[in-house]
Design goal:
Helix content is about 0%, strand content about 45%. With about 1000 residues, the protein is an all-beta fold. Strands 51, 52, 53, 54, 55, 56, 57 and 58 form an 8-stranded antiparallel β-sheet that branches. Strands 24, 25, 26, 27, 28, 29 and 30 form a 7-stranded antiparallel β-sheet that branches. Strands 1-2-6-5-4-3 form a 6-stranded antiparallel β-sheet.
Length: about 1000
């Protein structure tokens, strides 16, 4: 992680926060016990929003006339990425809408409540009222003396009052990896249902959910624990409740991906839910009730109180909040009882987030973001690029990143606005976990640049006179440049490299700064109809129509009012406009038709093409200032009328040629002349295919709409070059060729790669691993099979510098393999293992029990005898009698604990050859009939650069040729003296090289 740095925290206005008794709410953090409670009033979310106390994992309980919300206490610092939770507290209210709450900041601590528990890790618990009327608190803690692999356990406390005092009800864990029966999950996040004298407990995390019934004494098990299924994307934080005979199980879900209805990134969580007709299931997934919140974690608590259903959850929205400084919120749950079973409608979080109208130069927040690595790896979040939020110690979803384990040489991010913007600067915040030049992990780019879409030329161009492109990861990196007017801007990053592999790139925030006008922006005169709430969306800034965001205005009655607005990118301050409000019925004497203009917006391409769906705005103006009816059609379809409006937007999509037409009619019936607009869309990048022919690459591209403009290629880390013909290898080594095509609309496809194999014809000695193709039985997503032969053996390798197999399910054996383009004479090998766990754990990555080499003999794998060490600190070397093969495999036996196996990992695998090389000749062998007898005709062309002696051996005789010139042929027909011959082979020998064998078919004359 990069060094920590201070970060500014935007101030929040807290509506009506009153604390009683007198004194700051922050003083409550040092109190302990129910007698240290204090009362405050705050109408809104989070419940306690001033940053004096951070609360998480809410668990609501209705007790009499009161609603309690029990919470954990987040005590992590602003730059600490870990849960620091040492106690539990609670909020109490008798009237949710009033916003009056009593806070109990410290009701219990793990080590004082349970003598068998350690301090800290006061995770999510739940309080329920038992059949005996007492209150029972199910609490996750860490068991001090446990010998289990995971020490988390669930304790049970009891009290006669919802606020305590609490005592240990059992004297030991209710649930752990040892009791009441063995399990191998992390035992946290209990949720409890007490119903008709029966008690049900659910608990679990990391995708594992268990359930167990207890007797009415709350602690004696009934039956055995069992796994719960049917919960799509279940991750953790279950919450159970019953509504009208239907059981609802809500939970924090994560099934990240571009199409996920739950979460865009791995570190986010939605609140999903399932239903059942009984506590034991079966459960049916019903969807999402709460979308991801501002903290990476999410935790539900759903309950009915005074006739209204509520959901409690936590966010990072308090002053100074963060992923580990969360605060509890509460909102209403509404139901759709038309469905069976009834469904929870998706919760609308309050307060609804409003656009930030603070005047500032940054305009990135209003841009559409596109990136080169779609779909973005699910640990990252593309929306982090322009959310104007930089954390002191970010988690992956707080940034856009590109790490996949196999990183390309170049990546880019792009902003697109619906209208031209004038820009003059950039601020970018890079993130890294590896240094530049390492070629692994995430590093600041080696270099980068800013380009803009030249509206006149219809192509990308570098900004002029940039002040520089710094690559530090310590805060914003500033770049200024000559002002340009554009609809698109792109940052292109050349990844840091060690010469053979590339690091990924990550950006926490990229701001694009508007050029400031030379004189103050003047607000236009505005005319609206009474009751019209939408004011004009743009003002003129240096000749450009620029978005403006107005404060709310009262236009209910005719007259004049003043309204303030923030112009996008204008940092000097808000502007003030005079708004004239007219009566919509004032049409007497109006005989003038309105005027109508059609304006397209989208990702503008080259030659008049658009590279995205296009929004065509039909905007009308009338001399009387009123609204109109605007009718529009697309591609000759049925007209669609919008009224009363000042504009209507038409969306045009699909590659090809389109047309839009529209007319406007004012309230007096005057109709404008029809307006029409042609729209050409090519939103699909061209597709390039590659063909490897020997040691060269042939490329071809197609584009169905605008046509291919050009193909480019790059060899290894070289510059992009226009493709004009076959790309040959520059030398005998293996090379990677990157290639991409651009169509006439300006779409550039994501670069692809192809490998030109090494020239193996000459003698080979030493390590031939790097010229082989590496494969494996399984490779973890964060590791790379390419790390096996990258010629790197770092002392402390990053995960991308390893081949490894860690997953949730680890088999007893794994293998890695090299393939070569021809058989090679091999004499030895060595590899070094890597570990992060000890033998006998059955988890993590551990030194294996053993391994062996096998070679492919043409039909089967054959073992290679030798002595095989398993060191993780030195290379384990094996020498063996020479074998000639094109495939070599290392089969590795994992270490285990008797039940499960650890994963295995290798930093580097070297294979040694002592090979004379191939003959570098082209051999043709054909059977022929001459005078009723069969002959074998052999022709050998010398493909070497020097004259060579050539010997030909057949079943029907041998022949030697001395000093055959380069490119010349040696020819001989060998008679069989028989009328028919079977299929056979011919062997050709060149001194100092491996023989070449060529087959021929049978023949009857």
């Amino acid at each position: 992680m990069k060094p920590l740095r201070p970060v500014a925290v935007a101030g929040l206005v807290l509506a009506g926060l009153l604390v009683s008794p007198a004194g700051p709410a922050s003083a409550a953090a040092s109190f302990e016990g129910a007698d240290t409670s204090y009362t405050f009033t705050h109408q809104g979310n989070p419940i306690l929003a001033d940053g004096s106390y951070y609360s998480a994992d809410p668990a609501p309980l209705v007790a009499g006339d009161d609603l309690y919300i029990y919470t954990g206490h987040d005590e992590a610092g602003p730059a600490t990425n870990d849960f620091q939770m040492n106690e539990w507290g609670a909020f109490r209210t008798s009237d949710v809408p009033s916003g009056q709450w009593t806070h109990y900041p410290s009701l219990a601590r793990p080590e004082t409540l349970f003598s068998w528990a350690t301090a800290g890790r006061a995770y999510a618990g739940q309080v329920v009222q038992g059949p005996d009327g007492r209150y029972y608190w199910y609490l996750p803690v860490s068991e001090r003396a446990s010998t289990a692999a995971d020490k988390f356990a669930i304790g049970l406390a009891v009290s006669d009052s919802p606020t305590g005092p609490w005592t240990d009800y059992i004297g030991g864990p209710l649930i752990s990896q040892r009791v009441p029966s063995a399990n191998d999950i992390q035992n946290i996040d209990p949720t409890v249902l007490v119903e008709n004298g029966r008690v049900y407990v659910w608990w679990g995390t990391f995708g594992q959910l268990r359930m167990l019934e207890y007797q009415a004494d709350m602690k004696t098990p009934v039956g055995t624990q069992r796994s719960v299924t049917g919960l799509t994307g279940f991750f953790e934080a279950p919450w159970i409740f019953n509504r009208n005979g239907t059981y609802y199980l809500a939970y924090a879900g994560n099934n990240a991906g571009p199409a996920s209805a739950c979460t865009p990134a791995n570190y986010h969580a939605c609140i999903a839910y399932a239903t059942a007709t009984s506590p034991s299931g079966p459960w049916t997934y019903r969807g999402t009730v709460l979308t991801p919140v501002s903290s990476t974690t999410s935790h539900p608590g759903i309950i009915q109180y005074k006739g209204q259903w509520y959901i409690t959850y936590h966010t990072a929205d308090a002053v100074g909040g963060g992923h580990f400084r969360r605060s509890v919120a509460i909102d209403k749950v509404e139901w759709d009882d038309t469905l069976s079973p009834p469904r929870m409608r998706q919760v609308v979080q309050t307060p609804v987030k409003q656009r930030d109208r603070t005047p500032r130069a940054n305009i990135a927040q209003e841009a559409k973001v596109t990136v080169s690595n779609e779909p973005v790896p699910t640990q990252y979040w593309v929306k982090a690029l322009n959310d104007e939020l930089v954390r002191a110690n970010p988690l992956p979803p707080d940034m856009w990143g590109t790490w996949t384990g196999s990183n390309p040489a170049q990546q880019w991010v792009q902003y697109t606005w619906d209208q031209p913007m004038r820009i003059a600067g950039s601020q970018i915040d890079f993130w890294n976990d590896q240094p530049q030049g390492s070629g692994v992990g995430v590093a600041a780019p080696a270099r980068w640049k800013i380009q803009y879409w030249d509206l006149g030329a219809g192509q990308w161009a570098d900004v002029a006179h940039p002040s520089g492109y710094p690559t530090s990861t310590a805060g914003y990196q500033n770049t200024t440049f000559d002002p340009v007017t554009t609809t698109q801007v792109r940052a292109t990053f050349d990844a840091s490299t060690n010469g053979s592999t590339y690091s990924a790139v990550a950006v926490e925030e990229w701001k694009v700064l508007a050029a400031q006008p030379s004189s103050p922006v003047a607000a236009p005169a505005i005319t609206v109809e009474a009751g019209e709430t939408e004011l004009p969306g743009t003002v003129t800034v240096d000749g450009l129509q620029t978005p403006v965001y107005w404060d709310p205005a009262d236009t209910s009655a005719p007259g004049q009012i003043s309204v303030q607005g923030s112009v996008l990118g204008y940092a000097a301050g808000q502007i003030t406009a005079t708004v004239t409000v007219i009566s919509p019925g004032d049409t007497a004497g109006d005989v003038t038709a309105p005027t109508l203009t059609l304006s397209p917006s989208g990702s503008a391409g080259t030659g008049g093409w658009f590279r995205s769906a296009v929004r065509v705005r039909a905007a009308a103006a009338d001399d009387r200032g009123g609204r109109m009816t605007i009718a529009s059609t697309v591609d000759g379809g049925a007209p669609v009328a919008a009224t009363p409006v000042r504009y209507t937007d038409v969306t045009v999509s699909g590659d090809g040629q389109h047309s839009v037409s529209a007319t406007a009619t004012d309230r007096a019936g005057n109709a404008s002349a029809p307006a029409s607009l042609a729209v050409r869309i090519d939103a699909t990048a061209p597709a390039t295919t590659s063909t490897v022919e020997g040691r060269s690459v042939r490329l071809a591209a197609t584009d169905a709409t605008s046509g291919v403009a050009r193909i480019e290629y790059a060899v290894d880390t070289g510059a992009w070059t226009a493709y004009t013909g076959t790309v040959g290898a520059p030398d005998a080594n293996r090379h990677t060729v990157s290639f991409r095509a651009t169509d006439n609309a300006g779409n550039t496809e994501t670069a692809k790669t192809v490998t030109i194999p090494a020239d193996l014809s000459g003698p080979l000695s030493g390590n031939v691993g790097p010229i082989g193709t590496a494969s494996a039985s399984y490779t973890a997503a964060w590791n790379s099979a390419g790390a096996l032969n990258d010629n790197a053996d770092p002392a402390n390798p990053a995960q991308a510098q390893l081949w490894g197999t860690w997953s949730g399910s680890r088999p007893a054996t794994q293998w890695v393999q090299y393939d070569w383009a021809r058989p090679i004479r091999l004499t030895g090998a060595e590899l070094k293992f890597w570990k992060d766990s000890n033998r006998g754990t059955g988890d993590g990555v551990a030194e294996p029990d053993g391994w062996k080499l096998q070679y492919w003999d043409g039909t089967a794998w054959q073992d290679i005898a030798g002595t095989y060490g398993t060191s993780t600190t030195a290379f384990n070397t094996v020498s063996f009698a020479p074998v000639v093969t094109s495939r070599l495999r290392a089969t590795i036996s994992a270490n285990g604990n008797g039940t499960t196996y650890s994963a295995v990992a290798v930093t580097e695998w070297r294979v040694f050859a002592d090979d004379p090389g191939t003959a570098s000749v082209t051999v043709t062998a054909q059977p022929r009939c001459i005078a009723g007898k069969a002959y074998v005709a052999v022709q050998v062309r010398n493909d070497r650069a020097a004259a060579s002696d050539i010997a030909v051996e057949t079943a029907y005789g041998d022949r030697s040729f001395a000093a055959v010139a380069p490119g010349a042929n040696a020819y001989q027909s060998f008679p069989s003296r028989a009328a028919s011959i079977p299929a056979g082979t011919v062997t050709v020998r060149v001194p100092g090289t491996t023989p070449v064998t060529e087959g021929y078919g049978s023949l009857s004359c």
